[in-house]
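Weekly structure sync, notes
Attendees: PL (lead), two postdocs, one rotation student
Agenda item 3: pending single-chain targets
PL asked that the sequence for the first pending target be pasted directly into the notes so everyone works from the same version. It is reproduced below exactly as submitted, 144 residues in total.
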Amino acid sequence: MLARREHSAVELKRKLLASVAEEEENESRLAEVDAVIEDFKKRGWLSEERFTEQLLHARKRKFGSLKIAHELRENGITEDLVMEALSEVKTDEFANALDICRKKYKTPPKGREEWIKQARFLQSRGFDFEVIKKVLNQDIEELE
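Predicted structure, written out during the meeting:
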C-alpha cells in the first residue's frame, strides 16, 4: 500500500483492520496493527508530513481550504499540520476559485439564480463564503 502513495497512520490502520476478518478482530490484532504502524513511522516509511504534502499538492488546484482541511482532519492529521497546510492553500485560494468557476461556467452570473448556482458549486468545492463573494462579484463588475 505504501509503495503506491503516501498514507496517514489513521488511514493505514483503517485499511489494515479492514483486511482482518471481523471474528479475528480482537485486542491482539489491534495491538499488532498499532505496532506495525509505529515501526513504519520509526523507519520513515510512514510520514504525516509527506501525506499532508501529497494530499495538498493533489487537491489545492481543485478544492478550497475548507474541503482540504476536512479531508486532512478525517485522516487523523494533527491540527498543527492542518494549519500549516491551510496557510499554503489560502495564498492561492482566490485565483484557484476563479479558475475553477470560469472553467465550469463560461460566463459570469447574469442574475440572482445564476449567482446562487455558482456560489453553491464553489461552496461544494470547499471555498469559504468570502472567497466566493469576491469571485462572483468580480465577474459581475467585469460585465458592467
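Discussion points:
- The two ends are 53 Å apart (CA to CA).
- The CA atoms of residues 74 and 136 lie 30 Å apart.
Action: rotation student to compare against the earlier draft before next sync.
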